[in-house]
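[job 0417] fold request received: DUF1203 domain-containing protein
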Amino acid sequence: MTYRIRGLDPAQFADRFAMDGDALAATLSQRLTAPDEGYYPCRVSLKDAAPGEDVLLTNFTNHDPATPYRNAFAIYVRKNADEPAEFVDSLPPVLRGRPIALRGYSADGCLHRAALALADDVDPAIRALLDDPQIAYIDAHNAAYGCFAARVERYEGV
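[job 0417] inference complete; emitting structure tokens
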């Protein structure tokens, strides 16, 4: 089973980097500078921000079906992330080296199955979930903090 993981479209966040504090707060967002320690995983580039890099911390609805499984949480976006990353049958840096929760959803947006990848075993966990034909897509979340990391989609190629 081939899968694809794409970063979010940066256009939906670009204007927030120019907003003043009050306007930014109204969008449930904050501007930050990535410190020397810690992880600030960008949902556009799907890699961690470098120390000293400008990032946006913002609330983002990653799962928006008309079901009880609707989900929104805080995510980071690097200011200089101008192209959404794309990975086919491989993992982006934000899904490596940290515990990841995988939520497999049916086509109607209901949670069907889930898995937890505690080591660097995200790829086999994704493939096991996608072996179930009722799973239409998977949302990956950081297991410890709960924030959305990336969407995994079945991929047939171009």
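[job 0417] notes: The chain has three helices and nine strands. The chain has one domain: 3-154.
[job 0417] exit 0
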